[in-house]
Structure prediction request, 144 residues.
Amino acid sequence: MKVNRMFTVFRLTVLAVVVAGFNVKAADVPAFEGKFTLSSSLHWGLATLAAGEYSFSLDHAYPGSVVTVRRGTQVVARVLAKGVSDTNSRNSEIISENGIVREVNLPTLGISLQYTMPTSNRHAAPRQVPMAQTITIVAKGNGQ
Prediction:
């Protein structure tokens, strides 16, 4: 009987490890992956991204989602979305204003991620015209 109990415990342990392995793989799949190229530096959250090629991934498509930005294989920023809404855009794109990311449109997920524009105590020049820029995102893998 002792051998039978040990075999049952062993089988249950193997089953638990297999089930845990399936759950880990499902959690590792990002909701969206893409890449983009910056022609000049850009502020995204607290990070300053220099001109160059980047990739990013979004783990979950809900408020509070974290976007992980990479340059090559190095993680250069993790940025928290302040809000999520439905997107009206047909293009995957990053919208910036005055060199600061304000929005990321991901129509394959049907969402737009919003980011807060930092405020400063400095006085802006009167009637400063905001400069908007759109950066195209190329989806990779499951982002279509």
Q: What stands out?
A: The helical segments are 2-28. The chain has two domains: 1-29, 31-143. The two ends are 55 Å apart (CA to CA).
